[in-house]
């Protein structure tokens, strides 16, 4: 778990996973809760659902990112870190 958190919370990972969570979470919230929010009928439960719409894609994309790093091996991970240091990711 500590290894997962260490890799998932590195800047290159966060740049990707936060973007994915924002896009997917926004689309899911508009589709699933948009009419309730637009009509003014949003409750605490609605906002919890909206929050989950952002949290779930973040976790899933983080798991995918870390799994890809682990599968690719040390050379690929070093390349990702180098690219991140130069801002190309």
Describe the structure.
The protein is mainly α and 89 residues long. The protein has one domain. It has 4 helices and no strands. It starts with a helix and ends with a helix. 10% of the residues are buried. The mean pLDDT is 88.
Multimeric status of the protein: single chain
What is the CA-based Rg, rounded? Answer: 16 Å
Shape: elongated
Question: Can you give the helix content as a percent range?
Answer: over 70%
In whole angstroms, how far apart are the ends?
25 Å
Low-confidence parts lasting 5 or more residues at pLDDT below 50? Answer: none
Structural class comes to mainly alpha
The helix/strand series, from N terminus to C terminus, equals HHHH
Count of individual domains: 1
Number of helices: 4
Provide mean pLDDT, rounded: 88
- The count of strands amounts to 0
What fraction of residues sit in β-strands?
Answer: under 5%
Largest sheet: none
Features:
mainly alpha; 89 residues; 0% strand
Question: Quick gist of this model?
Answer:
The chain has 4 helices and no strands. It is mostly helical and 89 residues long.
Write the layout of secondary structure elements.
Blueprint: H1 2-8, H2 11-38, H3 44-72, H4 74-85
Helix pairs in contact: 2-3
């Amino acid at each position: 778990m500590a290894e997962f958190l260490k890799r998932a919370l590195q800047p290159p990972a966060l740049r990707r996973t936060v973007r994915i969570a924002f896009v997917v979470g926004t689309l899911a919230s508009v589709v699933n809760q948009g009419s309730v929010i637009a009509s003014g009928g949003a409750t605490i439960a609605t906002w919890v659902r909206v929050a989950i719409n952002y949290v779930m894609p973040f976790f899933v994309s983080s798991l995918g990112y870390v799994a890809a790093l682990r599968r690719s091996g040390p050379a690929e991970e070093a390349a990702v870190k180098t690219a991140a240091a130069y801002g190309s990711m």
